[in-house]
Design brief:
heterotrimer; A: 348 residues; mainly alpha; 13 helices; C: 510 residues; alpha/beta; Rossmann fold
């Protein structure tokens, strides 16, 4: 038996295998649910109901999807250029820090001015967080996977320091928490009366912009070329390092917008549990979306739905909500395998 | 200054350093084996979590300590098998698969923990490995208490490093593994099974990573809690680079690194520690790892076929 | 050599190998006797390498059988072939560069589970074989530190160490100087005298004539002729190999013009194991093909990199059309009118997952009409690709197909087309026909000659001495980063050039 490449896989193969991967993953999760002594069918129904069974549930899912769209885009953009940014978590927190530093009264401008300034400041902070490992990669050849991973821990400790020191809320009763943002720095609701803030709208716009950049501009052309074959890109006259730096700015900025949107839209202040791993989940979102910016939106809503649904299911059925993490991690692996198999066949 | 010297000359400091180094030695040796055979194993962080839980749970359920280590080893090998299957014969992205394994192993562990102990708030402690003073050697000044009054699992870590060094550089198996990491086509041309060798390396390496995790619950904290691995896996990847893919240098790197870690804990009690936020000390190991990567990046001899998949009959 | 009459050691019967729709070998039969040298002659793409990989067990044949010493060989298992006494010297060496010679030779020769490496005995055996066959090489040197000729010796030692009775050599002289080739032939004679049998794969007629007892000609996957070497002629072999009389392009007389590129004492840094240039002076003149010969790894890639914009001089001067080259990057090289055909069309020439249109504009995307104000114009790219496809006879499903689906020849035609259509004043052709079949090869050569006649300055880099000699108006030899003086067409014999390639003449001159 051996594997050989298929030059031009059929459409059925390209769509069928990922679909099969997702079904297989669902079956594995159901098996684990049964192991916990619950009825898989009932649990699946509870997850679905918790994620999309009511207007409240649906809005909760979309709110949860918002940061995931940003981090998913951040990862998708970077992975396209084969810049392995595993540090979306750190970039998210630095974006949140920038938002809090400027948005808690330092600047008291009207929202129409303040909010864009905060967004740009957040993006700058996130970009900076990814520029460090990118510089180490282009200048010293240090693998960015390990450096971005390690910087996640450093960033979290940095935030912890800020929340216990310079950014401590004097009214916080000792709980590590920043002071609340001023009202002008809060993202308004998308539709009056519905619990969904403008962060979601911003995320959709970001996805559309990234898609346009990738498919229609020379920047996107360069990013894709560098990711697919850096040597050929260099030979063709593309400034490979500059492309990586630009990609890092875009990717880090997008991840930072997740932090901005969570602080300015959802929470109103910075805490150490602002992100329950949105940065890492962004990797799953991006891979499930096959790195397509518009697919990221769909994948992020799907992933958010699983999390929200699993939380509500866990309260009702007593199955640990970690089942959602297992489901998504196995979906990631199954999807990578499915993608690999679309271009390979088993011979004899 | 005298404070620093006092710390550096105390046996308890070095004993702590060796203790902190032990899990890193196991896991870094595991990663080293994988990378020498040409596979980057980013599953290390999650596999350490699995090992920590599996070993602890086994002992908690009534198994002996050494059988518990065996259970941890097997749990790591199981995830190693999954990693190896996806990355070696299928040749999938080692980055994505590795991260996926870490996410899967971590969440599966937490799920199992919640299922096994649904009601507990403080996780129970187990009767873990006790220090064993090696006769005569432990009476030596300074190095006696530092090196030879450790738990058996620490001795096992050093023995593992020696064994890895011997196998890699003194046996035909080691030569074949290293050649897989340099040029798999050359290995295939000599009639050896590249796929089998690489998969074996990943499986065994992952087993060692899990034992490294088990050290945390069975010889250090005596209990399992969430996020206890806390980036140690990633640090081990940096250690392997720092050690230039050589077991001896990697072992030294782990001890050096652990010494810094032990030092920062002690420095926190000094006037310097009072002046700086404690987070700066906690962040030091991660920053140190990054610096080590930068410093070593120039001379490190990366295995030439690291992350290069191989399929028979293709060039 | 005397025609041997030993027993049959190898018998291939009716071997057929298919890769999807392509049939690489069809009903190939072949026998090899003890103490015999059989040459397997054929053009690139004739199926020689596939056949050898079947024999060595790297591929499984779809039909047919392999018999070694009267025993059937289980398919698809190199181990069985090795154990039956087959040793293979691959065209691209199968050596681990960071390991020592001894490690490479002993790899896989002892049971994996045996506790020791047995280095002492192994070293003694290697040293014995090296003396016996005249294959001197330091067993403790890392392979990375060895030259190409020495690496080949390691490959042969690998086979001898395993007591191979049959040696397969795949294009063994492709990377050697003429002198090194003679050494190789001497080694082969010693091996034959000791009763080994040799299968020698080549497309070079004079070598086949020099070493083989019998010749088997392969064309389009089939055996088209078999004869005792003594009973046939080079012309006959050439005709059989190609299937028609080869019309060697008869170059029109050159009309040299001004120097387009001038190098004065240029040096470049070494990159890892790749040699840099050491004080190179040369000029590329309009209307001339300047050929570069040398054993691979002697600075060709540094010179190619320099012209392509990937390398900068660390010392000396480079002038493009009489002006200093300025900040030198690939983009600057393209802007200066240098058309570049890279050595590795998969690695640096194309992006495999991009379609033909994207690959056709790979070097031009940043300027109109392909983009304006940062926005890509897909229509312009498509039109351009269609023009290149049409004019350069690129056989493909269309401009939207990923380029990795194309054959090597068609991929090369696209690269050639995208270069030629911009009417470059300088053309860098680095190994432009490597791995191409005879049709594509002839086409590429014709295009290079046509560009010369239009007044382009062409630099042709190739490991194939015959190719350079037949196409070039001026030839330089390169050795360890040093460049010989220019030799006009017809003033040097291959053997004389060979002396420059080995570096011997440089030392005389110094």
């Amino acid at each position: 038996m051996r594997l050989e490449p298929i030059p031009a896989p059929s459409l059925a193969r390209r769509l069928g295998l990922p679909a099969f991967a997702l079904i297989l993953t669902a079956l594995v999760a159901m098996g684990l649910v049964a192991l916990a002594g619950a009825a898989p069918g009932e649990v699946a129904w509870l997850v679905l109901k918790g994620a999309a069974g009511s207007q409240f549930a649906l809005l909760e899912t979309l709110n949860r999807a918002t940061p995931l769209i940003f981090t998913g885009l951040a990862v998708a953009v970077a992975f396209r250029a084969k810049l392995w940014n595993i540090g979306a978590e750190a970039q998210l927190y630095l974006g949140a820090v920038a938002t809090v530093v400027l948005g808690t009264g330092l600047l008291d401008w009207p929202p129409a001015v303040l909010l864009p300034v905060l967004a740009v400041a957040a993006m700058a902070a996130g970009a900076l967080a990814l520029l460090v490992p990118t510089f180490l990669k282009t200048r010293f050849g240090v693998d960015e996977v390990v450096t971005t991973l390690l910087l996640n821990f450093v960033a979290l400790l940095f935030v912890s320091y800020l929340l216990e020191g310079p950014l401590k809320d004097p009214m916080g009763l000792g709980w590590p928490k920043s002071p609340p943002l001023i009202d002008e720095a809060r993202l308004p609701r998308l539709v009056e009366g519905l619990r969904l803030h403008w962060g979601f709208g911003l995320a959709l716009i970001a996805a559309a912009l990234v898609w346009v950049i990738q498919t229609r501009t020379i920047w996107g052309f360069e990013i894709r070329a560098v990711g697919l074959n850096a040597e050929a890109a260099r030979f063709a006259g593309m400034p490979v390092n500059a492309v990586l730096v630009r990609t890092a700015i875009l990717s880090g900025g997008l991840a930072a917008l997740a932090g901005f949107s969570e602080v300015a839209g959802a929470k109103g202040a910075l805490t150490l549990d602002l992100s329950p791993g949105f940065g890492y989940t962004g990797i799953i979102v991006a891979m499930l979306a096959l790195l397509h910016p518009l697919g990221v939106v769909v994948a992020a809503i799907f992933v958010a739905g699983i999390f929200v649904g699993a939380d509500s299911m866990s309260r009702a059925a007593g199955v640990p909500s970690f089942i959602a993490d297992i489901l998504l991690a196995s979906a990631l692996l199954a999807m990578v395998l499915a993608l690999g198999l679309t271009r390979l066949r088993i011979r004899r | 200054m005298t404070e620093l010297l006092e710390i550096l000359l105390s046996a308890s400091f070095w004993a702590a350093a060796i203790r902190i180094a032990s899990p890193l030695i196991f896991a870094a040796m595991g990663e080293l084996i994988c990378e020498r055979a040409g596979v980057l194993n980013l599953g290390i962080e999650g596999i350490m979590v699995v090992g920590a839980f599996a070993g602890w749970m086994a002992v908690y359920s009534g198994l002996g300590l050494w059988p518990g280590v065996g259970v941890a080893l097997l749990s790591g090998m199981a995830f190693g098998l999954l990693h190896a299957t996806l990355t070696v014969p299928f040749g999938l992205s080692q980055h994505v698969v590795g991260l996926g394994i870490t996410l899967l192993a971590t969440s599966a562990t937490y799920y199992a923990y919640r299922l096994a102990l649904p009601q507990v708030t403080t996780p129970p402690k187990i009767d873990a490995f006790d220090p064993y003073a090696i006769p005569i050697l432990s009476d030596l000044p300074l190095i006696g208490p530092a090196l030879f009054t450790q738990t058996p699992l620490t001795y096992a870590a050093f023995a593992t490093a020696a064994l890895v060094a011997f196998v890699l550089f003194r046996t035909p198996l080691g030569l074949a593994l290293r050649a897989c990491g340099e040029n798999p086509a050359a290995v295939a041309a000599q009639g050896l099974p590249v796929t089998g060798l690489r998969m074996g390396a990943v499986i065994v390496g992952s087993g060692l990573m899990a034992v490294g995790g088990a050290f945390l619950t069975m010889s250090a904290f005596d209990s399992f809690f969430f996020e206890m691995v806390n980036g140690r896996g990633w640090i081990c990847i940096a250690l392997v680079v720092f050690g230039a893919w050589r077991p001896g240098k990697t072992l030294l790197g782990a001890i050096l690194f652990a010494a810094f870690d032990a030092l920062q804990i002690r420095l926190q009690q000094t006037p310097l520690g009072a002046a700086l936020p404690y987070q700066a000390f906690l962040a030091a190991p991660y920053i140190l790892s990054i610096l080590a990567l930068v410093v070593m990046s120039r001379r490190a001899q990366v295995p030439a076929a690291l992350m290069v998949p191989f399929r028979k009959g293709e060039r | 050599m005397t025609p041997p009459s030993g027993e049959t050691v190898l018998r291939l019967a009716d071997i057929t190998v298919r890769f999807g729709p392509v049939t690489a070998n069809e009903g190939v039969s072949l026998t090899l006797r003890r103490g015999e040298v059989v040459a397997l002659l054929g053009e690139n793409g004739a199926g020689k390498t596939t056949l050898m990989n079947v024999l060595f067990g790297l591929y499984a044949a779809d039909e047919g059988t392999v018999e070694l010493f009267g025993q059937p060989l289980p398919p698809g298992n190199p181990r069985a072939a090795l154990e039956a006494g087959v040793g293979m010297v691959h065209q691209h060496f199968a050596l681990a560069e960071n390991l020592t010679v001894l490690d490479n030779i002993t790899l896989g020769t002892r049971s994996l589970w045996s506790p020791g490496a047995g280095r002492r005995a192994a070293r003694a055996k290697v040293e014995g074989l090296a003396t016996e066959y005249g294959l001197r090489v330091d067993p403790d040197a890392t392979v990375a530190s060895l030259g190409v000729g020495q690496r080949q010796r390691v490959e042969i030692l690998k086979a001898l160490y395993r007591d191979a009775r049959i040696l397969i050599l795949d294009e063994p002289t492709a990377v050697l100087t003429p002198q090194e080739s003679l050494d190789l032939f001497a080694t082969l004679r010693k091996a034959v005298a000791k009763g080994l049998s040799i299968l020698f794969i080549s497309h070079k007629l004079h070598e086949v004539e020099a070493v083989s007892d019998r010749v088997v000609v392969l064309r389009q996957g089939r055996v088209v002729a078999e004869a005792a070497t003594a009973d046939t002629t080079r012309t006959e072999m050439a005709r059989l190999m190609v299937g028609a009389e080869i019309a060697t392009p008869e170059p029109r007389p050159a009309l040299p013009g001004a120097a387009r590129v001038t190098l004065r004492d240029v040096s470049t840094p070494a990159r890892g194991t790749a040699t840099g240039l050491r004080g190179v002076s040369m000029s590329l003149r309009a209307g001339l093909i300047t050929g570069l010969v040398g054993v691979s790894g002697n600075g060709q890639s540094a010179l190619a990199g320099l012209l392509a914009g990937l390398e900068r001089p660390s010392a000396g001067e480079m002038e493009i059309r009489g002006a200093p080259s300025g900040p030198w990057t690939p983009r600057a090289a393209i802007a200066a009118g240098i058309g570049r055909i890279p050595e590795d069309r998969h690695g640096s020439g194309t992006v495999g997952d991009f379609d033909l249109a994207e690959n056709a504009m790979l070097e031009l995307y940043a300027r109109p009409p392909f983009s304006r104000g940062g926005w890509i114009d897909r229509k312009a790219a498509r039109a351009w690709a269609e023009r290149v496809i049409d004019r350069y006879d690129v056989r493909c499903p269309g401009p939207e197909a990923p380029i990795r689906l194309l054959s090597g020849g068609n991929m090369q035609k696209l690269i050639l087309g995208r270069v030629m259509e911009t009417s470059p004043e300088v053309i860098l052709a680095n190994q432009p026909v490597r791995g191409l079949d005879i049709g594509a090869l002839t086409y590429v050569h014709e295009q290079l000659l046509a560009a010369r006649d239009r007044g382009a300055a062409v630099l042709l880099i190739s490991e194939d001495l015959d190719e350079v000699i037949s196409l070039s108006d001026v030839i330089h030899a390169i050795s360890e980063g040093r460049l010989s003086p220019p030799f006009a067409r017809g003033t040097m014999t291959p053997a004389e050039l060979g002396e420059w390639m080995t570096g011997a003449r440089f030392d005389d001159a110094a």
